Amino acid sequence: MSHSSGSSSRKRGRPSSKSGPTNPLKPPFFKSSPFSDFGSYMTEKNRKLRDQFETDASSSSHGANPAITDGGDSQGIFKGVAIFVDGFTVPSSQELKNYMLKHGGKFVNYFSRHTVSHIICSNLPDSKRKNLRAFSHGLPVVKPDWIVDSIASNTLLSWVPYQLVEHAITETSKQLKLSAFFSEKGISRSHHQGILIQNETSLPDKCKGESTELTLSGADNFSQEKSLESKHIDTNDELKDVKSESEEDCSTSYVAGQSSDHLNRPHSTLTDPNFVENYFKYSRLHFIGTWRNRYRKRFSNFLSGTGSKNNNPNNNTENLRRIVIHIDMDCFFVSVVIRNFPELLDKPVAVCHSNNPKGTAEISSANYPARSYGIKAGMFVRDAKARCPHLTIFPYDFSSYEEVADQFYSILHKHCEKVQAVSCDEAFLEVSLSLNDNPENIAEIIRKEIFETTRCSASAGIGENMLLARLATKSAKPNGQCFIPPDKVNEYLDKLPISALPGVGYNVEEKLRMKEVETCGQLRTISKDILQKDLGSKMGDMLWNYCRGIDHSAVEAVQETKSIGAEVNWGVRFKDSKDSENFLMNLCKEVSLRLHGCGVQGRTITLKVKVRKKGAGEPVKYMGCGDCETISRSLTVPGSINDVASLHRIAKQTFASFHLDVKEVRGVGLKLSRLELANPSHKGIEEGRLELLFSSATRKGKQPVEQSCSTNHSREDAPSGAHPSSSSAVSQGRNISELPPLSHIDLDVVRNLPSEIFLEMNGLYKGELRKILESHKEKVYNSGSIEKKDCRQQDQETSMRMQCELEPSEASCSKSNYCESDLMPGSLSQVDFLILENLPDEVRADILKQLPPHRVENQLPESSKSSLSLGSHSKWFDMLRVRNCLLSEFLLSSATFLTPNINPSCEEWDAMVVNLCEFVKEYVSQKIESDIEELYNCFRLLKRLSTNSSLLLELYDRTLPFLQASVGEHYGGKLHL
Amino acid sequence: MDRKNQSPQGQTAKVVVEFLEVAINCIVFLKGFYPSRAFERRRYMNVVVNKARHPQLANYIHSSIFALLPYIQKGLVERVVVIFYGQDQVPLEKFVFKLTIDQSYQSSVSEAELEFALRAFLVKLNAAGPIAKPLPSGANWEITAYFRELPSQENEGEQAKLWVPTDTKQWMQPSEITPIKSMDSNPLKVQLYMEHPTVTEQKV
């Protein structure tokens, strides 16, 4: 179609005789006036084409109806579908247009994201194929067969199987499978049908808008009908089990380019409360990662016995040479599965989660016949099937893998004392041979035995060191062995591409390619200095050695686990900090479980966070991490930890210290290093304590309203100019740690001060103090709004969570209570405290008794000291928690009253002690980071006071271990009390 | 990390660094490590403090602490410790300044308030003599900073490169802590405490 922008509307399109009369919407002025710009021209053109199409549709369906026997039904099959035909298609775009006309669909001439629901094309140029998202805008790109077949079957078929490129699936289908995967394993096949049905039934009813929404988010370069398991495998590429001794980093990042938002999708950290747990539960890589622990447990007797056996031969003969054999099972995952099917031995077989020929589950392992068809691990099943239609696909069989791995290692340990396990199917052996022995013999024997026992073949590489052995294995495969004798090393390495060397990744290869170095032979011409300069000292050194066949690493029977951790880089989407906190909690649980599993504790906690790079869109991979920046920070605590609570606290702190927008977080990893063996007795105590603290904290969180209501108006903080009063609303337990010193001042204390000191303080505060004392009532009234503000500020500063919705109620509480009590005549607030405090105990008690009981009740928090002597412990406890003063000051000022006249054996007393302990512990955990001076003072005071109060003695004894543990954790020492 | 609002942190860091210099001077004086005539009485934050007169000593304290400025600003420095150790390089006593600067603190810092809080340190420090233990002959001391993470080499100035890894030995057991003073005034938290080896360790 040719357009000339200057021409009038009449010239374009069909003769107006067809469109004109049935086009009431057309504004008349367009007919005469030329278009102001190209945009308006196109708008008008599109509108007109649409109108024409609609006219045609109505007329053609009229004409077509008699011809089609099942008239009414046929009309609607493409309802809600708007196609855009791109390029050459069979049937042609004109025919497709007619089909759409007949069956209720729409045909769009000019592509627009908003009007088109499907793109129809038969071929795509390579550039578009590579950058499909840019081309399709997330819409499904479907073959024309879809339309033809749909018409043939007279229903709207799911377009999923008709996609042109293996890229897009509907979000719904993916979601279904994902959630299904997490609820039940291994039923993915039935789901495919389920989804198909769902699409069929739902699509026709849906308007266009909805169908675009369905499809736009689904586009994903990876998968069509990606089954859950497969999804999981490739997510696990990102999942790193850090339970390995090497700390290499192999983070995968994906090119970003997706615009749709994933916030509302199921299966992510957002929706699945057990996300972390499930994430690790069904993972092949996790199996491999955790396999080492099994191995260690099972073969620990071999490992420990190694040392003694090894010494003898070494001492006896000097004539020995050290030979390293690298044994690797051939396509382990496949051969284990097919050992029971001998007829499949020379047929192509692959292992994969799903056997759907159209699926894009990824093949995890393929045997050699299959590899000859070009099938590789990581390939989609569908591609594999396309290359080799008779490919047999098996699911995983983890129990068999374990069995075979155990057999494999039994054999190795039988033949050799020094075995270094690399993976479940791969190991290094170090054997000492006399010069005459042929090392190939022993490899032959081992391989033969492996085959006889496990019915799976293994390959062996033999060399002087681990590097050569490993390289030799590559040439030995499959089911063979290769020996690189010392004199052939250089010859062998000369032609070896550098990428074959372990540790050479894409980056290094690329850097070296710039220097036109592609083989080890060429690499050898570069001096060590230059290598180290270009690639870093470690890498340069390593490469320099490797290309000469030098490898100093020794075969080690037992490899110490250096770090334990867990990392999730897939499906991480947080809506708010609550989500992230939950997620951290779960991650900590997972890590703690692993630590417990290995019986170790760690001292260095490393938190790694992947954050969406600025400007990076949604990742290509669904729920993937996309283009990310990685931030990590480690914290070394003086005492090793492995319990959830400590981990969580530290992780939370560290996480908060990044000051991230949680919405941008795409991955979180937690790792512990500097591992030590756990000391069970110590651990038990600490855990118990922390658990107690934890539970108490959560319980308190749940009932703050009642608390604040029951506490009346006990708080009269001194507001200063810079720091407005933060009073009862703020003082919700833990939140007070961040308060500025000025507001710590407790008026109760101030009033009790000798007049000289008061005057001095008043001077320091520039007279503010006196004003406050006199007018604290107004302050409390006014503080309502300030409190809230202050709260928020503190919330941010401390990153401690406080239920914001509670603030108003609390504020109003304090207000209303204040009025209530203050309006009461004869209340204690009218008694001069200075005098009251200075009275002897008995006299004061008498005075208090003189007051009517309800007055006393109301004034309890205010006159905190009297409350104790009256025996209202729970009130006292509540009051303490709400008060925003320093405990030590309180203890000091109320020292004489802390002699309860209750029998130490009664229940009330017990409850009180428990309450107090809880309070003190909370106080400790809140102050531990910011103010050990205060804690020190408190406990010194407690200690001093405990001599004449059994209550305080009990309190001191019970809380001291907690204090010391907390101090130990934060400061690596004990308070010297 | 948010670096946009460097001013409150930078401002705070400057005050902290200055304060640390004074406080360390005081500690060294307090320990009687050098003869008292090597110090002169000065007034800082309206408190009488002792400042080293010997240019080398003064310079050591000044330059090492000021080299920390960029790190303190970024919140990388966790503790600044003045360690006194005997001849065998085993610490006998540590004065620990634990610093926390809230990196997310946005509003401006009231310097007067910071000074008010820090003054209390100096007063208490001057009175902390009795807690300190007498040093044996042949003792030595150093300033050590504990970093939250090792600073990267590239983007720091010349001054920052003055710092070297310490080879002070660690105590085998958790130390005994005696707090001297703590303050908590946004965005700065400082805690000063002393660490001594436990009694059992001293015998070993």
The CATH superfamily of chain B turns out to be HORMA domain
CATH class of the domain at 73-264 in chain A: Alpha Beta
Report the structural category of chain B. Answer: alpha+beta
Largest interface: A-B, 33 and 36 residues
Tell me which oligomeric state these chains represent. heterodimer
CATH architecture level-2 label of the domain at 73-264 in chain A: 3-Layer(aba) Sandwich
Largest sheet of chain A: 5 strands, mixed
Cα Rg of chain B: 17 Å
> How many individual helices of chain A?
43
Q: Supply the CATH architecture of chain B.
A: 2-Layer Sandwich
User: Gyration radius of chain A, to the nearest Å?
Assistant: 38 Å
Number of helix segments of chain B?
Answer: 5
Name the shape of chain B in a single word: globular
CATH H level, superfamily name of the domain at 73-264 in chain A: BRCT domain
Q: Write out the strand line-up for the largest beta sheet of chain A, numbering strands in chain order.
A: 10-11-6-12-13
CATH class of chain B: Alpha Beta
**Uncertain residue ranges of chain B:** 1-5
Structural class of chain A: alpha/beta
Number of domains in the coordinates of chain B?
A: 1
GO cellular component, one term (chain A): nucleus
Cofactor (chain A): Mg(2+)
Family (chain A): Belongs to the DNA polymerase type-Y family.
Enzyme class (chain A): transferase
